Structure formats: structure tokens, C-alpha cells
Amino acid sequence: MAYNTKYILNYCNRHGKGLRIELQLWDYVGEAFILVNEDQYLLDQDGAYLSTNIDGNYDPQRDKNAIVGGPNPFTLTYKNDIGEKGGAIRATNADMQFYEDILFNIDDLATSDETQIRAVFYMDDQIEWIGFVTPDFFNVKIEENPLITLTASDRIGILKDVEYSVASDITQNVRIIDIVSNILKQTGLSLDINIVCGMYCDQFELFSGDEEFESFEYNNPFYDSWVNEYRFVTNIETMETLNCYDILQAISNQFNCLVTQYKGAWWIINKYDLEQGKGIRFNYNSAGEYQSIERISFREEYFNLIDSGSERTIIPAGAKNTYVLDNGPEMIYPLNASLNSDTVLISDIRYWWGRFSSSSINTFDIPSEYNSNGSIKESYENEVKELLINEGVITTLANDSTNFTPVPSTIPGTSYILESNKFKVVTMDKRKSSFKLNVKGTGKPLTALMIGMFMEIEKSGEPGVKYHFSLVNEISSDGKSFSGNNVFVRVDNINSASNIPVYPFGFENKYNSLNIAVDQDWNIEMHIAAGQMQTYDISTANFFFRIYPNAAYKKNDYNQDLTEVHNILKSVSVTFLNDNQTPKGTVFQSRLTGQFTKPTDERNVMFGDYQTVGQNGFFYKYREDSLSIMYNHAGQMLRTWFTPYDSERNPLLIHSLRQLTYSYGRAHDELKIGFDMDRIDPFAHYAVRCFSDRYIQVNPEDDYLQEKNSRYITTTIGKYLNSKRFVFVEGKIDYLRSHFEGVLAQIRTNEVERQEFIYSYFEQGDIS
Q1: 498 CB burial (10 A radius; 0-12, 13-18, 19+)
Q2: Which of 63, 65, 133, 656 makes a 20 to 30 Å CA pair with 257?
Q3: Last residue of a domain, one of 542, 562, 577
Q4: 298 lies in the same domain as 404
Q5: pLDDT digits (tens, 9 = 90+) for 285-299
């Protein structure tokens, strides 16, 4: 199935250049005819007429239908997301007019599918623009020879209503180009992606240079930067995510880029490269796969016949320019800490390895009361499945035993039923780590959930040799209780058939009834570091959990009837802590030297380099597992960036900040203007070649203004614009009349006196 052209309009612009509009329908194969049998219409089982075309195949010569264009056949509009040159997204939409006839009419176009009808516009037989006709915007007057007005768009705007779909595993990083490709596909347009962005990192993969390109020029930051898609997840349990538009805007901002469509392809262009007039274009297909590389220059266009009524506005210098990097949600470990599963089988719990021989299950039924033997008497239905551990190890004590803890603290090492994925011990300085362990469960009093929290670590000088430590609650000196002193102890063989020490989470007799189920929540805060005389390297450490059978003691006056144990484990999670407060993010900011007051809009971004120091402000370290960190192909953090115009090594966001500052560092002209031009290029530099026509100035009452000698006061807009260059911001292009009406902004690229800041923020009010 494919889009095939059903309606076509060929016409020329005022200069005689060929233009063409094709309205294409999905799966169109020609005019359909209702099937008959002996003068009886054939119906399907739903009562609809059966139809077919002549041969079931699309024939361009036979199945295209010529239509008649209206007074304004095709007008294309570029809309900037913030209405000025610093915008990140330029959405496009087209207004089209055609005369209705028997074949081409509003009924024939009726559809509820927003991607059923595709509009393709050609200039000189080259694709100029592609979009989808919006079903909500068919319009026709009820009159003789009516005019149909259609609106089509690139559907970038609908990305605001589309949640991002995470395609990778949380343990994997993906290229930024893959994220951009996935987002742009949500528009329904499968177009090539052209990227011009001269930002380079010393940590990128190295290539060999040649006569045409320096070695670093073969790198593209969208292709060579890797990030974690889970940065877009707002709720890890429900997998709710941010919308695609906000993500695309944030990615564009972090590289100081703009996104738009031109000549039937997506373009992502660094705005500083655009204002410099040159760059290196990388071409990728719609799937984000590399196709080609070439040097390009953005041409200069000249205009002179300016519409009367055009306006020139001086935009003041941006006194303060700000990039805000949000670190994103803090990771909670292990992955799938709530042990969620779509089935009852524990082997289907994602990110956990379950033993197939286990009788434990995932269930909605939560115990509320037990029988004295430990079986479940009553339960209630929960909203989500929880892990019901049906295995139990009951240790029978001698009846005269008095010196024992409420629940056991050891269990056979081979008896575990679930094991989590391993996760790295997060440190702030590669020497120590702090974390909070939280366990939630429901169970029978005087029984315990048995959970092994293990640390796997190497010694310095012994790469690849793993040592294991288990978290335990030390027993008090009287042997009858747990001291609450939580420590990691060395375990020689965690897979031993003999008992090994683990952590018992014992249920209290909260209601003075051993048969009433208890909901309990345990919190343990730990601070760990290698001892002075030890050679363990904490930077190599990983944590993981093992879930063991429930455990309990039994004797004549203690759980005397107990024969089975069934407890619920709701979650087991680790949250790593900072020495101080963990900041929400980092602010990168520049302030002009001098008396300036107007700030530019804040740019919010989701990814950046792992920052460890501040500049001219208070800085607090944040977690090294932050989802905002960018990596190279080998998993190494990106750190030092440079551009063709700034060789000083700095974080990416400092370079983006500087480019923004240079663009807004001095007052610049903004023109609301109209003029004629054969072809409008949204990436060109625009300039006035000569003076425009002079106009006599008038006052608000339309009286001519005169000098003292009675000479009329005249003006020409050209005198303000000669020697200045402008970039396209937004506007409307009438292709029939070769006319542009919109906004241009003056190019500014020079350095300015400024002070730069890097500091942490904990809430929005901390951003000065």
C-alpha cells in the first residue's frame, strides 16, 4: 500500500516557473465502481456496496484527475514556536484553494483519518513541501461554482498530544538521532533528516580525516551522542512519558538548533552555523541511518521592492541568557522495584530472574487474615499484582530454647526464588556511597521476608575477581533481638547449600493477634566506604537482590501450629543519597556587562554533560547515574566540547549559551516586511541591495509632514537596512505571486562583554 495521486493541479507563478499540487490518497488505485450481478448491487456482510477499480492497480496516466485552482492555489506558512529568531521549531502549514466540480468535491474528500490525504507541492518539478490535509478544515461555500479551501500541515503541532514511546531497555542508551527520528515519524511523514550542527566533542569516536574533511568533522552530535530514553519517563511504574513536542524542542535547544521542513525533508540546523552562512550537512534517512555528508553554504538573497506598511523594530540586547538543565527523575533500584508483572508467573517479572520451580505467584489477592497454621484464611483484592511468596523455611527449636531472635537471620544460599538485575553502586567521589533501602510487605506476625542485598566488588590490582558482601542486621549481645546495627559482611560463597546471612524483615505482632495480617514498611539508611586498611575498589561495586523463602521459628509456645508461611513482598528499592541535598538541576547563564535589563527566554533542556564544578555560583554535586548525562558509543561520559568558532574546551551547554548570547548580545533589527522574490529560501541570508522607494511621512491624522522650508519630509526603509543581513524567522509564502510576507531578524554573531555562571538549583526560585 502507498500514497498515489488522485488529484493534480499544474500551474505557473508570475515568472512562468512551473508549480504543481498533488493530492494523494492512501491505498488509492483508481476510480472505484460498484459491482453488480444481474442488475443487483453486490453487498458485503455489513451491507456496504462491494466496489473495485478496473484492474486493481494504480495507473498514473489513467487515475490522475486534473482539477482547477482558485485565486490562491497554494500558500505556505512557517510558524516559529516563540516568534523570534531564537526559536527551536518552525512548524509549517499550507492553505490551498480549488474549484469544486462533479469529480472533485468536499464529499469525495470527506475522511476522519488525519493522514488519509497527503498534499505534495512541487516547484520546478522538485518537491518543495509535503503535509497532510486536515479533515477538520474542509471549507466550501454553498454557491454556483464553489471554491473549496483545504488546510494541510506537517503535523508537528500534534506532537504536543503524543506521549513519547520508549523503545529501549532502561539499561541501554540510544543515539539522539534515533529519538528525533522516532518523534518525527509520529507526524506520519517519513522524510529524510538533514542535520547541520558544528558542535564537536573530544570523547566522540575518532575517524580519519581526508582532503575534504578534518577528522572531527565526520562526527555529528545527534548521531554520536547517546542518552537514556527513560529520561522522558515521568512515572516509572505506569511508564507515562513526556510529550514528543517538548522533547524535540528541548533537544533542539541543547544544540542551539531549529527544526523545520523544507524541500520534502526535515532540517535540523544550528542557528549559529546558519548565521555564519555555512556548515556540514549530514543526511540520514527517516530511520536515522546515515546516508551522506557534504559542505553547504546558505546563499544570500537580495530584495528591494518592499511593501508599504512594513515595520522595523529594534529588539534590545539580551541582558541575561539562561539554559536550565533538569537532571530528571532520580533512578530507583533495582529495576522494577515493585516486581510488576502482567502474568501470575514470577518468571515474567521484568528485570528479575525467577526460578521456574517456584510455587510463588503474582496475585491481586492480598492476605488480611491467616489460620493458625499459616494458611491464608481471608484476603482482599488489590489494584495491582503483588508477589506472594509461598515457600517457607520453618526452623523448629527445642522447647526449652530461650535464646533466639524473633525470626531467623540465615537461610540456605541456594534456596532463593528471585534475583534482580545488578546495578552500579552510585558514588559522589568514587570513594563512598550513601543510600536508603525501603522494603514494603504484608505478612503473618513473627514470620519474615528473607532478602539478600549483596554487594559484588573487586579489589584493586585484582581485576575480574569478584568478592561478595551481604547486608545483615547484627544480633544483640543477649542473642534475643536484632541490634539495628546494619553492616555488610563478607560471604565466601553466596551459592552455598548451607545457611548464609541475609536480612530478615520480620512482621511485628502489631494487633496482638498472630492471625491478623500486618502491612509493614522498613527503611534502612546506610553509608559505606572502603576501610583504610582495605583494598576494595568501590568504583567497581554492584548491588543486587535475592528473594528467599519466608522464614520463621517454631516451638511449643511460639508459632506452635505453624506449618506454612505465605507473605507478600510489595517492593524492595534502593535510593542513592547525596552528602548534601541533591539539586534538581544546573543553570548555565550569561549576563552582559553594562546596563541592560531585558532577558531572553529560558531554554529548558533534558541532556548535558556530567557537571562536577560550578562557576561564579554555588554548585552541589548530583548523582553520577543521572538520566540527563550524555555518553559516547562506548559508554564514556561526554565532557569537553568545541566548535569551529570556539576552540576552548567547555561543556556543551556553555557553547550553546555563548552562541545564544552572541546572537542576542547587541540590539538587533526585526523586520515585519513584505516583498517579491522568485523563490523564498527559509535558510538564506536576506539583504537590501538598493534603496527602496521614498515615501512622504504623515502624522496619525494623515497630514503630510513638512520641514521649516515647507519641503515634505520623506523616508526610505532601505537606509536602515543597507549593509545588514537578516535571517528568516517566520512568514507566509504565496507561490503564485512569488511574494513573501513575514518576519526577518538581523544577524548578530560577534562576541560581547559578559560574565558566565554555572550553579545548582533546587527549585525554580533559585534561578536568578
Answers
A1: exposed
A2: 133
A3: 577
A4: no
A5: 999 999 999 999 999
